TrEMBL record:
Homology family: Belongs to the TenA family.
GO terms for MF: thiaminase activity
Keywords: Hydrolase, Thiamine biosynthesis
Role, per record: Catalyzes an amino-pyrimidine hydrolysis reaction at the C5' of the pyrimidine moiety of thiamine compounds, a reaction that is part of a thiamine salvage pathway. Thus, catalyzes the conversion of 4-amino-5-aminomethyl-2-methylpyrimidine to 4-amino-5-hydroxymethyl-2-methylpyrimidine (HMP).
Name recorded for this polypeptide: Aminopyrimidine aminohydrolase
Organism: Terrihabitans soli
Reaction(s) catalysed (UniProt annotation): 4-amino-5-aminomethyl-2-methylpyrimidine + H2O = 4-amino-5-hydroxymethyl-2-methylpyrimidine + NH4(+); thiamine + H2O = 5-(2-hydroxyethyl)-4-methylthiazole + 4-amino-5-hydroxymethyl-2-methylpyrimidine + H(+)
EC number: 3.5.99.2
Gene3D superfamilies: Heme oxygenase-like
PANTHER family linked: BIFUNCTIONAL TH2 PROTEIN (PTHR43198), SI:CH1073-67J19.1-RELATED (PTHR43198:SF2)
Active site: E205
A biological-process GO annotation: thiamine diphosphate biosynthetic process
Recorded name of the encoding gene: thiED
Amino acid sequence: MSFSTDAWTANKALYDTIRAMPFNVALKEGSLSEDRFKHYIIQDAHYLIAFGRALAVAAAKADDPDGIVQFSEGAKVAIIVERALHADYFQRFKVTPADFESTPLSPVCHHYSNFLIATAWAEPYPVVLAALLPCFWIYAEVGRAIHAEAASPNNYQAWIDTYAGQEFHDAVAAVIATTDRVAAKASPETLKAMHHAFTRATQLEWMFWDSAWNLGDWPV
């Protein structure tokens, strides 16, 4: 089987848990409180800066020109396109640029951001892709699962539509294909590291949504 099939199967129970988390259930129902979504969207905007940096490093490490283009474009999308989604919600919920700049990264956002950047710089290309893949893939699957059952009208429809949309799913499929291609040539040691990175990123996806639900902050 491909790396992606093996990795998804190994982490399927955790994905099922993510899909049923209180944050995602409330988002689907349109009942998610404004303070929880504001916490999430501010932290996600911080996270996407780190995600974009990690994608840019992946582009620099790519093993062919197509990979350079693919992940350079991915970095652009993370910074420009998804930031536009955040800007819409910032305006709707009256989050000013000063509010964003003065809000520090939560402990989980800090951990996840540093995990991605450290992995991007320190690990070989296949491991970098394995660490980046869960954010793409889980958002796509959660987006479509919520879209299929979402209450209407829903205050968070723009978020749902973004991650359930075909354009995003096409991009995710391309990342999966590239990851499988490089995994097929990887050594057993690299494959083991890829699985570890994929699982750790999946755990951090769970932690990110849990932190948003609990309004996670630094305890000291």
